[in-house]
Known about the structure:
Blueprint: E1 6-11, H1 13-22, E2 50-51, H2 57-62, E3 68-73, H3 79-88, E4 93-98, H4 103-108, E5 122-126, H5 130-138, E6 143-145, H6 148-157, E7 164-165, H7 173-186, E8 192-198, H8 205-213, E9 218-224, H9 225-234, E10 246-253, H10 257-261, E11 267-273, H11 276-279, H12 285-299, H13 312-315, H14 318-332
Parallel strand pairs: 1-11, 2-4, 3-4, 7-9, 8-9
Antiparallel strand pairs: 3-5, 5-6, 8-10, 10-11
Amino acid sequence: MWLGWIALAILCLQTAFGNDQGAEFQSLNMDRVSPERWGLPASDKYSPIVEISENNFVSKVMECDDVWIVIFHRNGVMKKWKDVAKNFGGAVWVGSVDIELHLGLAEKVGISVAEITEKSNMAVVFPLRNGKKYIAMEDGLLKSSGVPSQAMLLASEYIPDKTTDLTFAEDQMQKFNDWVVKGYYYEQPSKFPVICLIDEKQTPLHVRVAAYYLASHFNFGVVKKRDVAAMRTFFKQVPEPQVYPTFLVLLGKEPSAEEMKNEMFQMRFNVMPFIDKKYGDPNLLTSLVNFLFVANSDYRKNLPGRDPAEPAEISKMDEIRNKLKQRFDKAMKSTPRQPRKHEL
């Protein structure tokens, strides 16, 4: 197994893979790619807010393994909540409950009717995994907030952060080296290193969710804006980001037999950049997942450390695709309304 030191050099994707191969690679053109190519719903298929009732509360929220933010309102969800919900894009699910119709549901989760007016909404955040939801509700430990940004922070805290902080300080380069080598050679299946460039103190919610669901095939490293300049001293061909967040998939290139013969043991990189005109809004989970499926489709067969006998279902990320599709179906598919007592 090759385990030489990594050379921080960037090679041009087009040059590295050649024009003949490039014609087959989706990442080497500017044609827009839809998540539907991978059997996943496009971003416009997501409803920002799902109507929750006493009929579907258990099936959609409590029996769902994802985080839910459920907004309790009186005669309508306020605009500030709607604006925030649009930005989630399926990273977490947002539901709404009209307490005029479902007072019992509000009481069940510990919401006081007095807290809800036409000028104030209250959101309850339900944790990851259905078992924890039931425990939190039974023990009165569900968290709530009347402020959208605070509800988003509460939701983020429920999602395990599987990312690695990278600074590219000279005394931290061994950490970067170990992070890349571990994913390539010590984990099965082998993983792509993904660098997420962010301008926030905390890892964005959709990045945390992507790192959680795609952990079997990708390792996510986070570089904060203040450290981008240090990163670019090593990756000189990576331009200054114009928008944040943005993403880079590192495509390792092992030394050739000739280079090994000449005792040149360093790994070099090609870099696949995120392009919003091609993959979508970088603030949405659907766009990030779309980008990573393209990377896997184009470059998995060249991934260092990859088992040549890797089953096709692993190479194509079938399990990830199925989980993402199932979570969408569970949250977005409508539940037939049960008739109320006076309608029977």
